[in-house]
Amino acid sequence: MRIFFCELYKLLSKKIFIICLVVALCINAFTLIYSSAENYNDRTKHNNIEYYNSLIKNCNSSKKASEYLKKELDIINERLTENSTDKDALVEKMTLLNDLISQQNYINRYDDFINNMQIRADNQLSFSIFAEPDSFAYNNIQQTPLDFQHLKGVELYAGNNTFAENATQFQITDYLMIVLVALTCILLFYTERENGLYPLVRSTKNGRTSTIVAKLFAVIAVTVVTTILFYLSNILITGIYFGFGDMSRYIQSIGIFMNCSLKISIFEYLILWILGKTLTLCAFSLLFSFCFTAVKTSAKIYGIIVVFLAVEITANLFIEGASAFSFFKYVNIVYFLSNNNLFGEYLNVNIFSNPVNIIMVWTVVVTTLALVGFFGSVTAFTKTSQISKKSSIISAIAEFLQKHYRIRGSVKIYSGEAYKHYKISFAMVILIILVLFAVSNLNDDLSIRFNDASESAYCDYMEDVEGVIDSDTENYLAKEQQYFDDLETERNEIFSDKNLSETEKRNKSSYIDALFRTKGEAFNRILEQKYYVQIKAEEIDEEPAFVNELVCKRLTEDTYREWLYFTILMAVIIFCSSNIFACEYKNSMVNLIRSNRYGKGKLIMIKLFTVMFTSLLSFTLVYLPYFINFISTFGTKIFDIPIAFMSDYNLLTSSVTVGEYIAILCIVHLVVTLTATTVIFMLSMLLKNNIMTMIVTSGIILIPCLVAMELTDVRMVTAFQNNIWQTVVTVIVMVCLILTVISIVSVFVKFSNIKWRKKICQH
Predict the structure, then answer these.
(1) Which residue in 151, 296, 285, 299 sits closest to 220, CA to CA?
(2) How far apart are CA 127 and CA 135, in angstroms?
(3) Among 142-151, 335-344, 356-365, which is the least confidently predicted range?
């Protein structure tokens, strides 16, 4: 027990842990409140909470709740038609009434949903695809009505559901907890290894067992406390902001929990929800502990963690529920942590054609992972050396080079830094992987997959008309218009033509209808685009021009690709740059760096140049191949056309071309990339530890990137579409400039020991 409290004291005495914990809590609270305040419906409930609660009370006390709500809505509509001065307040009340009407409609349907479950199951079994007795589909359909049978007759009530919905669906907390768990493992396991303290652990009658057991219980204790702290704070924040409502109602009273098969109240569900998160993260922390005790090098640890999380996230996002690989989608740490997947959604997993409830699967998986993590950590810590050693192959190569290669003269500073950066920090390996990624992007098929024939016809038209609308374009469009006019006349004359049989009339009419549905729709789209372009051209003072919107959207509005590439780039920079100062601190070489007429300034500049060069090279390998592939596939014609000529950019008032838009986007990404590099550069010097720098910067940089993938408004394309791109770009550049200056100045002041040198000079 004494060792356990010592381990807790060591962790809590670390300033970096307390700082990260407080910052994470602030970020969590701020983003939760911000996301709630940004939603109009949620904001309306917050601003009118007393009125909303009175509606709920009257609704639940009324025997005819739906009629009461509709009557109230009619009164609001009448007041709106009277041109009342308080229209905004009336619209807000209407929003709240519509919300309760929607709730009441759901409650009225829920009994039928439960009572007819067996009928729906019998109907599904009548299809041959589900009728095979030993199949998972058959067994699952049979099992589902039985699991919901106990919910027949439950009484549901309308209520204030917003706090429970927002608290349980907020995912940023999950990401922050993963980072804090990793940081806890670093401080309890890795820093002692880095400082060479493990050889000092005395052997007792239990060997190192008591030490590792104390560390593991410390990890579990910290994980439990921080998990409860974060998720309980989510409930309290949303409850205080929106009100808690009646938590004694059944959880099924909330629409998003319609498929929950547990007969529990909202309060009981929230307890289960926190318990599920806590146990999952405890298993996760033990698995991390096993990784930190079994693997000795920081690069490998970070690589294993990133690959593991990437595989889990990819499986959760991209494997379809009906896929043969759906087992890996649901038996997944990310799935267990996300939203209300465990207790809020009914799901059976296919285990050898038997439907096993996800709660049972979660229990077995979490228990197994916890046991593997615990006993694996104990075994690795007690049976293996906790000192990182070079592999036999690397040792043999080093011995060979030592015998046959001797350094003549001095080694240039850049050569030494490049060697440490590209070889010791494995930056060269990552760059080779990026080259393979670039080759893949270069050969990727970018051709458009058309949703229907009219899109194909639209692209065919664009091959002829794309570009400036001149006299030739006008003549071409007039000719096509005449063609469709003649086609319309021909269609009207078909049924009056006595020379055609009924079959011929139907066939010919069907053929013309098909032309209008495909080519005709495409031509109408061209005409609508022409009308829009001509108006827009006068507004931005440019010559009107056609732009292929399908191709241009592929280039400018592929927001997932935008954030995916940027996230990959950030992960690469974090991996490559985190060790730039840490290696000197790890080996205590920083104390041997002599002061010369440049002080340590020259070394700092060369280190900065090294990581900046790697970042520029990585940026080129990530972004350039896609644009080369795009140009080789679609050409460069659209690059000279103002992007405002796309209807999605109708609010844009500047004449920025597509090419200029791409250039601005790349410049912004490059500026942010270089700024991120300087921030990592500074943190590597301040934290003095490779893996800690990786984890902290992952929390600062990678988690916002993952969150931004889900926030559709956080896009550069949105700034252009809303005509605020100049402000957004200016703010981003200024913030990046400030962060860059702060980071570089901090490194110069701290690493060069400027204050210390001044004191020595005064003496």
Answers:
(1) 285
(2) 13
(3) 335-344
Instruction: Dump pLDDT digits (tens) for 226-242.
Output: 999 999 999 999 999 88
Crossing angle, helix 502-515 and helix 471-494, to 10 degrees? 150
Alpha helix positions (H), 13-86: 15-38, 40-47, 49-61, 65-81
DSSP designation for 654: S
- Cβ neighbors of 123 (< 8 A, separation 6 or more) are none
70 has pLDDT over 90: no
Report pLDDT digits (tens) over 557-593: 777 788 888 888 998 898 888 888 877 776 666 655 5
Report how far Cα 684 is from the mean position of its chain's Cα atoms: 25
Q: Residue 549, exposed/middle/buried by CB under 10 A (0-12, 13-18, 19+)?
A: buried
- Of 621, 683, 681, 671, the C-alpha closest to 430 is 621
Write out pLDDT tens, residues 445-476: 777 777 778 888 888 888 888 888 888 899 99
3-class secondary-structure state, position 265: strand
pLDDT band with cut points at 50, 70 and 90 for residue 396: low
Residues forming beta bridges with residue 265, ordered by sequence position: 250
DSSP-derived letter for residue 256 is G
Please give the distance of CA 613 from its chain centroid, rounded to a whole number: 28
Structure-token pair, residue 615: 């970042």
**Is the Cβ–Cβ distance between 624 and 669 less than 8 Å?**
no
Look up tokens 């989510």; give the residue: 234
98 phi, psi to nearest 5 deg:
-60, -35
Instruction: Tell me, rounded to whole angstroms, the distance of Cα 363 from its chain centroid.
Output: 27
Helix (H, G, I), strand (E, B) or coil at 501: coil
pLDDT digits (tens, 9 = 90+) for 84-115: 667 778 888 888 888 888 888 888 888 888 88
What pLDDT score was predicted for residue 409? 46
The domain segmentation of the chain, as residue ranges, is: 2-38+156-383, 116-151, 467-546, 551-762
Q: With CA atoms as reference, report the closest residue to 25 among 254, 226, 192.
A: 226
Contact 377, 347 (CB under 8 A): no
CA atoms of 554 and 622, how far apart (whole Å): 17
Burial of 121 (0-12, 13-18, 19+ CB in 10 A): middle
Q: Within its chain, how far is the Cα of 506 from the centroid? A: 53
Residues 6+ apart with CB under 8 A from 306: 571, 575
The packing angle between helices 658-687 and 549-556, to 10°, is 10
Q: What is the pTM of this model?
A: 0.73
Q: Which backbone phi and psi does 250 adopt, to 5 degrees? A: -65, 145
- Which run of H or of E encompasses 702? none
| Other beta carbons within 10 Å of 249 | 21
Cα 183 from chain centre: 21
